[in-house]
Amino acid sequence: MRILRAVRTFPLPVRLLLVNQLGVNTGFYLLIPYLAGHLGHDLGLSALAVGTVLGLRNLSQQGLFILGGSAADRLGARRVIIAGCGLRSIGFGLFALGDTLGILLAASALSGLAGALFNPAVRTYVAHEAADRKAEAFALFSVFATTGALAGPLIGTVLLLVDFRAAALAAAGLFAVLTVAQAFALPERAVAPAPRGVLADWREVAGDRRFLAFSLGMVGLFGMESQLYLLLPDAARRATGWEGAVGLVFLTATLANLTLQLRITTRLQRHGPPSRWIPLGLAVAATGFLLPLAAPGLPGVLGGVLLLQLGLMTAQPFVLALIPAFGREGLTGTYYGLYYVVSGFAAALGNTLVGRAMDSTATAPWLLCAGLGLGSATALTRLHRAGRLPTPARPLPSEAR
């Protein structure tokens, strides 16, 4: 009820995009977790071909975020959101209908491009519409996204009882519905004419040393967050010898997000700027990787998951609220796009390093992740104390809204 009351206090476009994110994550996680199995087992593709298809989706998304951000700035976030959802519907439809490598590669590229378009565009639209309540809006955004990430695999599991094609068509249909709904219901925002070319915009953002220092300082967050899908599930599986223990990792993280995210953000934002809370969140998340060393077994792993999630919930809404404050309003999408390019490659590098550490000693991956988090916390603390981070407008007290 608290979440629904908070949702109703935001403008209609923000409410629509919250529902949109619920649908986007439901559709995505309805299909993607089962894609590798379909390619390898159902279609009989080689491991190389499976890796190529999956890698192309990641590469086309992570590498093209900057294009999606620039498109949102120049064409309007609404148009880019609609285009992204439409492309994802086509891409997922091709996964359902295609069984040749060429069609699968096209589906992968289209679905990756779709994410590169609508991810920065949605955040740009929310940032503009939420005004001085960005952190609270992005906290709700996280709650709706997490709900979709939980619902998607559950629905996918049921549809897979029919076959993979049913799951893929359902996901494609959901994105088609979202595309039509946004085309009719999401208001258009006026876009000021761009005074110069796209490359000049990119040079301006890439030349913002404060923003680059901030983005690079956040690499620990990206590396730690990705361990919800690598190190922590593996640790739960090893601690119990039970494959189902992996579900407990995601259940712990999801329940924490649904029950605590909004409370944490609304309370912290009353007591200081975002730059104060981001390093704290990073430090808390880092301790989540030390707890399993101090308390081996499943309780220690789940306790680590909870601490990691608490840290992410502390930092992430304030990170997303801070990014638009680095530059002028006409470049909000480009700033988000560059931030997500850095985050994507940092997460990939982090997984590579952690994967290698997992093959060495039992303690190495945990110490590596804790070190990444504490290093990022230190870097952001220094940026905050040096006054190199912007201070967005503080939200009005609730009674003054």
From TrEMBL:
Main location: membrane
Transmembrane region(s): 12-32, 103-126, 138-161, 167-186, 211-232, 244-265, 277-295, 301-326, 338-358, 364-383
Entry's localization field: Cell membrane
PROSITE patterns: MFS (PS50850)
Membrane topology reported for the UniProt record: Multi-pass membrane protein
Keywords, ordered alphabetically: Cell membrane, Membrane, Transmembrane, Transmembrane helix, Transport
Domain Major facilitator superfamily (MFS) profile: 1-388
A Pfam family per the record: MFS_1
Protein name per UniProt: MFS transporter
